[in-house]
Each structure stands twice: as C-alpha cells, then as structure tokens.
Amino acid sequence: MSALVSPSIESLLPYEGGKPVEELAREFGITDAIKLASNENPLGPSPKALEAARAILSQVHRYPDAAAFKLRERIAAEHGIPMDT
User: Fold this and answer.
1) 30-54 pLDDT, tens per residue?
2) Helix, strand, coil tally for the chain in percent (to 5)
3) Residue 13 gets which letter from DSSP?
4) What are phi and psi of 83, to 5 degrees?
5) Distances (CA, A) of 5 to 1, 8, 10, 14
C-alpha cells in the first residue's frame, strides 16, 4: 500500500474494455456484430448538431468567452431572471 493513495483507490481494478469485433469473430464466429461504445450512436450525429458544428467551425481557432455572457444571458431570459442572480 502506498502512503499517497487511499486504500479505496488502491483497491480499484483497472477498466477492461470490450473485445474488438475482430476478436469476437475469431473466438465466437460472430461476423455481423456492431460494436458501439457507451458514448456512440448507431444513427450518427443529429443533423442539428452537424449544422451547429458547421456554423461555428470558422471560429474554433479562438478562445471562447470565459464569462459565457451569451449563454448566461439566454439562460436568464429563459427563466425570467436577471443575469447576475
């Protein structure tokens, strides 16, 4: 045991990812598997998300507003509260 790591952290087991589809085919003969990670969508990205990404691509080389003024403004308007609340 390390003095720098708590026992609860020290006892964690490493994550073991799922098998690649090629390995499934070799081991189990499964040839039509579709593997998706927990954050993947079989339908692909939303058309609205693609449109939003395309609209902002010309500005991604700049840092965003650290104060998130426009976001806070819209959230405040949505909830009918002042921005400084």
Assistant:
1) 888 888 877 888 888 999 999 999 9
2) 40, 0, 60
3) P
4) -60, -30
5) 8, 8, 6, 15
